[in-house]
Amino acid sequence: MADLDMVNRDPNNLNNHLQICFDDVIGEPEGAHSADCVFRNSYKCYNGGKNCCYMFLTFLCGLPLALCWGCEFAMITFQHVWQITPCLRVFMINLGCCQKFLGSCVNCCLAPICETCGLFFSNIKVSNAATT
C-alpha cells in the first residue's frame, strides 16, 4: 500500500475512453445558449448526481467486485503458471521433433523435384512479336 498513488488512480491510463466530465458530455454550441443560471445549476446538478451515484455504487459494489476481480485474475494466473505454460512447453518439445522430421522429408523428397522443375522452366524463352 506504500506505493499506492491516491491522487493519480489510473496511472496506466486504462480508462481514458471514459469522458464523463460535464464539459465532455454537455456543451451548448454558439447560437443555442440557455440562461446562465440554468447552465450553471445544471453543472452543479450533473456533478452532484454523478458523484453521489458513483460514491453510492462504489460503497455498495466496490469491495465485492474488487474481491471477485482479484480472484478472477488469481485463477487466470494459476491457469497460466500451472496449466497453459507447461502444456505449451510439452507441445513445443513434441512438435519440435515432428518439425525436424517433416523438414527432413520435404528437403529429401520435394526439394529435388522443385529444383528440377525450376531448371526445366528456366529454359523457357518468351518473346513478344508484333503481328501485322
TrEMBL record:
Matching InterPro entries: Caveolin
Subcellular localization, as worded in the UniProt entry: Cell membrane; Golgi apparatus membrane; Membrane, Caveola
Domain of life: Eukaryota
Pfam entry (one): Caveolin
Membrane topology label: Peripheral membrane protein
Gene Ontology molecular function: any one: molecular adaptor activity
Keywords, comma-separated and alphabetical: Cell membrane, Golgi apparatus, Membrane
A Gene Ontology cellular-component term: Golgi membrane
Protein family per UniProt: Belongs to the caveolin family.
Primary role: May act as a scaffolding protein within caveolar membranes. Interacts directly with G-protein alpha subunits and can functionally regulate their activity.
Entry protein name: Caveolin
Organism of this sequence: Lottia gigantea
